[in-house]
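Lecture notes, continued. The same structure-token format from the folding unit now serves as the input rather than the output. Read the line below as a description of shape only.
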């Protein structure tokens, strides 16, 4: 709720992302390409997100002109171009949502027809739903942040009763798998510049919330979208 109050104060006082400086930024400048084979603009990502979540955003009830003027990321493009972009993105969002619904239905039917038991064929709990899985992720996070020294396999195994639902060798395999996954993720994050992608997604998340904020009053937003507001630096790839 503190984030919502802060957001509302900025909106009322025309500060932060609602300041005249921010909303007029970029006027007269050459707009970035909306979408190419290798890049996607913030306008594209934001527009796609709004259409993917049209039940929440209400974008399907607005005209092209209203959407175009609703955010400086959109209004940087000529209206005639933006109309084409919006039409294409709307089609893309519809296809993605239809595929998502089909995949969800398929997965649900498979799970219903093939329910998973409580134990694996070897008589062990399933690791992905066991509390030990989340505990191991938490321990690795603490190690990476320097909040916990790097223990041996046995030291960590002996320090948590939740790990002892598994034989030591089984736990060791999961430990090594998580260690390898994080090592590879760090390598590819650097190699593929995924940090820049994360910044892009974070900024679009904030713009999405700002767009919603401008459509309804603050109390209603707090009531309907408090779970979706993100003013922190956390967090699907488009």
């Amino acid at each position: 709720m503190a984030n919502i109050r802060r957001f509302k104060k900025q909106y009322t006082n025309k500060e932060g992302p609602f300041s005249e400086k921010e909303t007029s930024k970029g006027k007269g400048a050459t707009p970035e390409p909306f979408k190419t084979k290798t890049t996607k603009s913030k306008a594209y990502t934001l527009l796609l997100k709004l259409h993917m979540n049209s039940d929440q955003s209400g974008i399907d009830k607005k005209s092209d002109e209203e959407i175009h003027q609703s955010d400086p990321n959109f209004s940087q493009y000529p209206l005639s171009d933006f109309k084409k972009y919006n039409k294409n993105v709307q089609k893309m969002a519809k296809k993605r949502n239809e595929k998502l619904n089909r995949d969800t239905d398929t997965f649900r039917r498979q799970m219903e027809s093939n329910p998973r038991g409580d134990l694996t064929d070897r008589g062990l709990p399933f690791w992905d739903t066991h509390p030990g899985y989340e505990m191991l992720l938490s321990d690795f996070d603490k190690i990476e942040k320097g909040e916990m020294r790097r223990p041996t396999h046995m030291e960590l195994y002996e320090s948590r009763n939740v790990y002892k639902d598994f034989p030591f060798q089984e736990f060791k395999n999961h430990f090594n798998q998580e260690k390898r996954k994080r090592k590879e993720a760090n390598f590819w994050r650097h190699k593929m510049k995924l940090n820049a992608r994360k910044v892009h997604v974070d900024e679009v998340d904030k713009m999405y919330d700002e767009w919603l904020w401008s459509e309804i009053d603050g109390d209603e937003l707090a009531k309907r979208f408090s779970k979706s507001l993100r003013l922190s630096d956390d967090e699907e790839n488009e």
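Point for the exam: Confidence is low (pLDDT under 50) at residues 21-26, 216-238.
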